[in-house]
Each structure stands twice: as structure tokens, then as C-alpha cells.
Design a protein that fits this description.
76% helix, 14 helices, mainly alpha
Length: 392
């Protein structure tokens, strides 16, 4: 709070030239999501089935969407004044309540989960109302967000009056309305785009959070077993997979998808943005899968549900990385970017083949093959970039 205790929201689109970084408050805010993702992963680990994964996804999406809402408000209007800090701390408390209700969020705690989500959206709606009042130029955009998010929250509010499973249908309708709301901003988003350096950094930080859960899964898995050759090799393979995904994502990340908003191609930007939801889901699932593989490293055959969780998560992650990479090269029409996307897509197809045909593979062999596939993809990336740099 260098400029005073209270500052009205201001539009920060004139700061694209600045190398804007995440604030200490934003990093502190992220901590509650570290806990939330750990709890979600714990839930999935207890029920590695199709139903368990569906429940994991159903609860993951509102958590991720709350983080996205706070992030995009901050990139447009953040002032880091007293009111901004107090509202953020209130949001953190609500996310903690949301996390507490995760364990039985689709059963006995579904009402508490819904109430917590509604409260989080109300805070965001209030912030946009305040921003629209103090920044008239942004009022059309903030009003659109307020309408869309209010309708979505209303569906969640009505769900409290309904029994399970009808309650979850209204959750779904509310989320669909909210996810479609940015699509209707049109020229409003073109005139008031998010900060070009801030948003990629924030998306990368959330990716780091989920990758951290993969590393924690390796630690938990090895700590609960007696060290032997198979468990050590499995752990090394799990770490190499996490490192490969870090490399594939951060070696290609840039702000070009946000540039598409400036030329009116908001669908490309939203494809890039919503792909990060699938990326986060797949990375969290991989962490759980690696933990189970380490636990089963001494057996001959990995159970089918655990094989599909692990291989399906890796395959989805590689396919999503292909999409994210492709969206970064649409404006520049870079041949290199398209080639890298094909590599990721091919690697994802191979891992998906392992999920289908790898029923006779031992856990150690399976994770080693997947790790090799990921490392080969990294090597192909390096080779391709080296060739293009020489030719240029």
C-alpha cells in the first residue's frame, strides 16, 4: 500500500509496456488453492474409478473457476489497497470453507460447498460493481460480467432447494452460463484486454501449483514403501514426467494468445484459457496415478482403473499441451509451432495406446515407457528449435 490506505479501482490496460509481476497478495492467495488441490487429489486417490474421477472433475472446475475470476479481476483493476486486501482475505476464507466441504462435496457437504461457491462469486460480483462505478470506461464490460456471473450464481442458489442429483444439474447450468459469459464480451474485451505479461505468469503459477502436487505424490509414494529397485525406478520416472511437462509448457509459453484478443479473435484466447483447466485436471490426475504406481511397483500387473488414470492423464496432458502450443503460433503462423504441436499430439496418441494395449505391462515398465515418451518429446522440441534457429 505505497500510495495510501484506500485507492479506487483503476483500469490497468495502459501498463502493457511494463513487465508486471504477480503481487505478494496474489502469491499468498494461491496458497489456499495449494491446499484445495491437495484435498481434491486425496479424494481421487481414495476412489480411482470412473465415478471417482467424474466427482474429482466436478469439484475441480468450480475451484479453478474461482481462481480464474480473482486473477482476471486483478489483472484489470488491482490496486493492492486496504479494501482490495480485505476483500482478497475474505475470498481466501471462503475458499478455505470451499475446501473443507470438498471431502463430501457431492453428498452430505454439497450444500456447504454450494454456499461457499456462491459467496466467492458474490465477492467477485461486488468487485466488478465497484470497478464499474469508479471506471466508467470499463462499465460496459464489468456490467456484462456482473450479469453473467449473477445468473450463474443464481443457478447455484436455486440448487440449494433441490435434492441430489438435480442439485448438480443446476451447478452445471450455472457453470455453463459463467464459462460462456466471456464469449459474449466481443469488442468490449478487445478494448479492455488483460495485461500481456501478468496473465501468462499467473497461469504458469497455477500450473506450478499442480505440478507441485505431482512431486508431492512421488514423495508420499516412496515414503510409504521400503526402498527397492522397482520403487526407486518408478519414482525417478515419475519425477522425469513432471520435469518433462514443466519443460514442454514453460519452454513454449508466451503472451501471443492474449494478442489475439486485440484483433478480435476472442475464441482463440478462450481456447487457450480453458485448455489450462484440462491441463490442471490432467496434471493432478497424473500425480495420483504416479502415487498408485509407486505403491504397486512390486506387482506384475497394474489394475486397469489405475492404468487408465495414469495413462489417460498423461495422454490428455500432452494433447492439451499440443492445443496450447498451437494457439500460441496462430497469429505469427509459425511452422515451428505447428511441428511442436504435432510432436505433442503424437506422444499423447502413443500413451493412449499404452492405456488400451498395456494391460500386461508391469507398473515399472509402463511408467518407464511413458517417461521415455515424454523425454523423447522434449528432445524433439530441442532438436526442432535448434534447426529453426540455425536456418534463421
Amino acid at each position: 500500500m505505497k500510495k495510501g490506505l484506500w485507492q479506487p479501482p483503476r483500469l490497468r490496460i495502459g501498463e502493457e509496456h511494463e513487465d508486471r509481476r504477480a503481487t505478494w497478495l496474489e502469491l499468498f492467495y494461491d496458497l489456499v488453492f495449494v491446499v484445495a488441490i491437495a484435498e481434491l487429489s486425496h479424494n481421487l486417490s481414495k476412489d480411482v474409478s470412473l465415478g471417482g474421477f467424474a466427482g474429482f472433475v466436478a469439484l475441480f472446475i468450480p475451484i479453478w473457476w474461482c481462481w480464474i475470476g480473482a486473477t482476471f479481476y486483478a489483472t484489470l483493476f488491482d490496486t493492492d489497497d486496504l479494501s482490495d486486501r480485505l476483500l482478497t482475505l475474505l475470498q481466501m476464507s471462503i475458499i478455505i470453507a470451499l475446501t473443507i466441504n470438498l471431502h463430501h462435496g457431492l453428498s452430505t457437504s454439497s450444500s456447504g460447498f454450494a454456499i461457499s461457491y456462491i459467496a466467492a462469486r458474490c465477492i467477485l460480483i461486488l468487485q466488478y460493481l465497484i470497478a464499474g462505478h469508479y471506471v466508467p470506461a470499463a462499465n460496459p464490460l464489468t456490467s456484462w460480467y456482473v450479469k453473467g456471473f449473477s445468473i450463474g450464481a443464481a443457478f447455484w442458489l436455486v440448487s440449494l432447494l433441490l435434492p441430489i442429483p438435480w442439485r448438480f444439474g443446476f451447478w452445471t447450468l450455472g457453470l455453463i452460463v459463467e464459462f460462456l459469459t466471456p464469449l459474449g464480451t466481443g469488442q468490449l474485451a478487445v478494448q479492455i484486454p488483460p495485461n500481456m505479461s501478468h496473465v501468462p505468469e499467473r497461469m504458469g503459477l497455477f500450473t506450478i501449483i499442480v505440478l507441485g502436487e505431482s512431486m508431492a505424490a512421488v514423495v508420499r509414494g516412496v515414503a510409504e514403501k521400503q526402498w527397492d529397485t522397482s520403487s526407486v525406478l518408478t519414482a525417478i520416472s515419475g519425477v522425469s514426467i513432471a520435469f518433462s511437462f514443466w519443460w514442454l509448457y514453460f519452454d513454449s509459453v508466451d503472451a501471443s494468445p492474449l494478442e489475439t484478443m486485440k484483433v478480435g479473435k476472442i475464441k482463440i484466447f478462450l481456447t487457450w484459457l480453458y485448455s489450462h483447466l484440462l491441463l490442471a485436471i490432467s496434471l493432478a490426475a497424473i500425480g495420483v496415478g504416479v502415487e498408485h504406481i509407486i505403491d504397486k511397483s512390486g506387482v506384475n500387473i497394474l489394475p486397469g482403473n489405475e492404468r487408465w488414470l495414469f495413462c489417460g492423464g498423461v495422454a490428455l496432458c500432452l494433447i492439451v499441451l499440443s492445443i496450447i502450443n498451437f494457439t500460441t503460433c496462430i497469429l505469427d503462423k509459425m511452422q515451428k509451432g505447428r511441428i511442436l504441436s504435432v510432436y505433442r499430439l503424437g506422444a499423447g496418441s502413443f500413451v493412449l495406446f499404452l492405456a488400451i494395449a498395456g494391460s500386461k505391462l508391469s507398473p515399472v515398465v509402463l511408467i518407464a515407457l511413458v517417461a521415455c515418451c515424454c523425454m523423447v518429446t522434449v528432445a524433439l522440441d530441442l532438436l526442432t528449435k535448434s534447426q529453426f534457429s540455425v536456418n534463421s
